[in-house]
Automatic annotation (TrEMBL):
GO biological process: monoatomic ion transport; regulation of monoatomic ion transport
PROSITE patterns attached to this UniProt entry: FXYD (PS01310)
Protein name: FXYD domain-containing ion transport regulator
GO CC terms in record: membrane
Family note: Belongs to the FXYD family.
Domain of life per record: Eukaryota
Segments of this protein annotated with the region Disordered: 50-73
Organism of provenance: Perca fluviatilis (European perch)
Keywords of this entry: Ion transport, Membrane, Transmembrane, Transmembrane helix, Transport
Regions that span the bilayer: 20-41
């Protein structure tokens, strides 16, 4: 039994600091959330800018026709 106790006394050289892990996780979650919102909004605004610049430069252009697929019952 003495050899078994000496083998399992040192469980790990690494000690977990749960407060630091929790803080790091929250910070990373906030950064990813904000960057996702910024990416989504930037794509939305770039589409608006492109469409407004095309319509203002073209003057009185006929709006493009949209095709509706036939309904299948």
């Amino acid at each position: 039994m003495a050899t078994t106790e000496t083998m399992f006394t040192d469980r790990s050289d690494f000690d977990y600091d749960y407060e630091t892990l929790r803080t790091t996780g929250v910070v990373l979650a906030v950064v990813m959330f904000v960057s996702g919102i910024l990416i989504a909004l930037s794509k939305k605004f770039t589409k608006c800018v492109k469409s407004s610049s095309n319509s203002s430069s073209s003057g009185s252009q006929i709006p493009p026709k949209t095709e509706v697929p036939p309904q299948t019952v």
